[in-house]
Design goal:
Helices cover 20% and strands 30% of the residues. It has 573 residues and is of the alpha+beta class. Keywords: Hydrolase.
Length: 573
């Protein structure tokens, strides 16, 4: 039942209307809370939608923002600073998606990909909000991550009263949200189940598995058997448990059993939907989690209407409750919703923060500067040099490492190569590639590369990363360019590795922007599992790592004249 309360903070009163019922076109009602000023004047509204629960978002009124590695950081409090939204003259409306929280209906699959399109629900929700007496008919949206993806799904449906969106840290290519270079990422498990710094979805018994609901039982059984036969999956208890008891982890079950890209993920890919979006879009992303930078740039390039993109500075995790980027957001909405000519549309469409120099580079499109991809070659004694190896394989010792499964060791083996100290500022902006000539003694492994800027004092910062499952090394010839490799990651493109065969693996390095200052070095690390603790991982939630390789693998890296293992990086010119 709807009821009102008042919250007072800093001498300001916020009127809270709890448990509004918002009808969808199929008769299902979603639950929502509205936060507004203590007067009755209609205001524009900012809508936030997710399965994380509107009650969790209400903590933004009482909990100071937490930064990683605070144990109070909760990745799901993402709907924004309620008090500031109201203070800026907007109504903040926070809703529970169908099948979650206090809403009716079923939620089937990750992003409800097996049920009613979430964009359709968002359309109905926005139009209902616009018709309320406390709204002046103008609506924007708010929130990061899942909330951000919901903004894109909503805008693609073109609700008439949606005037603009502001998206920070959204997830776009849904395959890349769960598999990086074909390597499973554990963070979606945390977001669903509430583990390692996340409260998770506001669970109800109406959250269903898309696989169990929509796929024949014999096909599901075959897919489960196939996944259990993968040594990586079989060595990880949580995955084995989920595959045997899927109704306890329904969305995670769907992800585990769909480890290849294709129609399952592409059906409602927000990047694919970008061409349908007409409202002005402001995108923001911070460096440090490369796959989100990659997807944000791809979405930006697909948008046809008024748009802006800010690529911000490291580190990658914003505070929770989320309060960053509000200044930019309100400038955007003041222009497009309130009609205030604040000059935002006279500014460059793209702003990129460059690590190292700490400069902001502005331009009309990505990349913001002309780029020349140049090679840095893996050479003896851990060196990374501009000149290739002149000697043949018979004269050059290989590099290599043996990685035991993490079931029997807690040691992650790393190979490193580094440049000489830079003598002058050297700027790189864009994606890159690693060409690695490697033989392994198994039929599969992971390649994980991480590039660091190492200072003369010994401090270092992650610049970018790349992931590739060896059996998914096939390249998309139509999309691949020098320094910008693309992999289809489809079932049809899988190429099991022949043990002992030397293969060239081309790993995509996610887009980045960095200047290496004099005295600094570029260091590249190669492993097949992620280090359990380091300067970067300590900033992330505990579950934000990838599925380890579950078999012992010996990796032999060739770097001779015949096998020029190298990085290809985007030097600005």
């Amino acid at each position: 039942m709807t009821h009102q309360t008042t919250f007072t903070a800093g001498g300001r009163s916020i009127r809270i209307t709890k448990d509004l019922r918002v009808p969808m076109r199929d008769g299902v009602e979603l639950a929502a809370d509205a936060y507004t000023g203590d007067d009755d004047a209609p205001r524009p509204a900012l809508v936030a939608l997710s399965p994380y629960g509107k009650e969790l978002q209400a903590l933004a009124l009482t909990m100071p923002p937490q930064r990683r590695p605070s144990p109070m950081w909760d990745g799901c409090i993402e709907a924004g600073d309620i008090a500031r939204v109201v203070d800026e003259g907007y109504v903040h409306v926070i809703g529970d998606l169908r099948g979650s929280g206090a809403s009716e209906g079923e939620h089937i699959g990750n992003y409800n990909a097996g049920g009613v399109p979430l964009g359709q629900d968002a359309y109905d929700f926005i139009e209902w909000v616009a018709a309320q007496p406390w709204c002046d008919g103008s609506v924007g949206m708010i929130g990061i991550s899942y909330f951000g993806s919901m903004q894109v799904l909503a805008a693609a449906e073109r609700p008439p009263h949606l005037k603009a969106i502001f998206v920070s840290g959204g997830h776009y290519d849904f395959y890349e949200t769960t598999y990086h270079g074909g390597v499973m990422w554990f963070m979606p498990r945390a977001a669903r189940e509430g583990r390692g710094g996340d409260s998770g979805w506001a669970f109800t018994d109406r959250t269903k598995s898309r696989m169990l609901e929509n796929v024949p039982a014999d096909e599901v059984a075959a897919r489960v058997a196939e996944r259990l036969a993968d040594p990586d999956v079989a060595a990880w208890p949580n995955l084995v448990h989920t595959l045997h008891y899927p109704t306890h982890h329904e969305a995670w079950f769907d992800i585990i059993t769909n480890n290849f890209d294709g129609e399952w993920y592409e059906e409602r890919n927000p990047i694919t939907l970008a061409r349908n979006i007409e409202v002005p879009v402001y995108l923001q992303i911070d460096q440090g989690r490369g796959w989100t930078v990659d997807g944000t740039i791809e979405l930006f390039e697909g948008l046809q209407g008024p748009k802006r993109l800010d690529i911000g500075s490291y580190p990658p995790m914003q505070s929770r409750p989320w309060v960053e980027e509000h200044d930019k957001m309100f400038r955007w909405y003041d222009y497009w919703i309130k009609g205030i000519d604040n000059g935002i549309m006279d500014e460059p469409a793209l702003n990129v923060f460059v690590e190292g120099s700490r400069e902001v580079v502005s331009a009309a499109a990505w990349p913001p500067k002309p780029v020349e991809h140049r090679a840095l070659y893996l050479r003896p004694r851990g060196r990374l040099l501009t000149e290739p190896e002149p000697m043949g394989v018979e004269h050059v010792a290989t590099d290599g490492f043996f990685q035991a499964p993490l079931t029997v060791t807690d040691r992650v083996e790393l190979l490193t190569w580094s440049t000489p100290a830079f003598e002058e500022q050297t700027e790189m902006i864009g994606p890159g590639a690693a060409h690695l000539h490697v033989a392994i003694d198994q039929d599969d492994t992971n390649f994980i590369l991480r590039l660091w800027d190492a200072g003369p004092s010994g401090t270092r910062q992650l610049i970018t990363s790349g992931y590739l499952k060896a059996s998914q090394r096939a390249l998309d010839a139509d999309r691949t360019r020098e320094g910008d490799p693309r992999h289809p990651h489809t079932r049809e493109s899988v190429e099991p590795v022949v043990p002992g065969e030397v293969v060239e693996y081309v790993v995509r390095l996610y887009p980045f922007a960095a200047t290496f200052l004099p005295g600094h070095t570029l260091v590249v690390e190669l492993s097949n599992d992620e280090p359990l603790v380091d300067e970067h991982n300590s900033l992330l939630p505990p579950d934000a790592f990838h599925l380890p390789v579950g078999r012992p693998v010996t990796h032999t890296i060739y770097r001779d004249a015949r096998h020029p293992s190298r990085l290809v990086l985007p030097f600005t010119v």
